[in-house]
Design brief:
This protein is α/β, with parallel strands linked by helices. The protein has a single domain, classed as Nucleotidyltransferase, domain 5. The protein contains 6 helices and 5 strands, in the order βββαβαβαααα. It has a 5-stranded mixed beta sheet with strand order 3-2-1-4-5. Helix 2 links the parallel strand 4 and strand 5. Helix 1 runs parallel beside helix 2, helix 3 crosses helix 5 and helix 4 crosses helix 5. The radius of gyration is 18 Å and the shape is globular. The two termini are 32 Å apart.
Length: 180
């Protein structure tokens, strides 16, 4: 069993999603948003995000955190704010000894929707289908966070398979390549 919390960072709205992989498949556990009061000073908003992330980690006991990797934004202030939200998620992961994995937006879209330039609606639709949650209300930020968790579960499973092949004795790797 592997449980992952995905975080779509932001200082106004921070999305979260918790997904678990069991022998039976992928299970949706929780999703939502952490909203901060835009009238509060930034340190207080960051504290709100940090405290809520710690609470969510304690409540759901994930094995790992999947976080959206920074990308170059056209608005410098937006990039700074995104970085501050990411920092709160990284700090929460470090405080709870969670392994942290980062994925670029295009990598998440490719993993979940099969196309690296998929739109928000396509990603949300595939998240719903993958987790069997057609009737669950999902904010865009929560859907993005679930997509991050799904991306990690998909990528980590593939990485495990590749590692297993790499650990095989050389003779078995050669036999496998001849058999193809």
């Amino acid at each position: 069993m592997k449980r992952v919390i995905g975080i779509d960072p932001g200082t106004g709205v921070c999305g979260f999603g918790v997904v678990e992989r069991t022998a039976a498949g992928l299970n949706y556990l929780a999703a939502g948003t952490i909203r901060t009061n835009r009238g509060h000073a930034m340190p207080r908003r960051l504290m709100t995000i940090h405290e809520n992330l710690l609470r969510l980690i304690d409540e759901h006991a994930p094995d790992a955190m999947s976080l959206e990797r920074s990308f170059v934004a056209t608005n410098v202030q937006s990039a700074f704010r995104l970085g501050e939200g990411r920092a709160m998620a990284m700090l929460a992961a470090a405080e709870r000894n969670l392994r942290l994995f980062e994925y670029a937006p295009a990598e998440v879209k490719l993993s979940v929707a099969g196309w690296g330039r998929a739109g928000k609606d396509q990603v949300k639709s595939m998240v719903r289908k993958s987790l069997g949650i057609d009737r669950v209300q999902l904010a865009d930020d929560a859907a993005d966070a679930l997509a991050l968790a799904l991306c990690h579960l998909t990528r980590s499973r593939m990485a495990q398979a590749v590692d297993a092949v790499r650990r095989m004795p050389a003779v078995w790797r050669r036999v496998g390549s001849v058999a193809r």
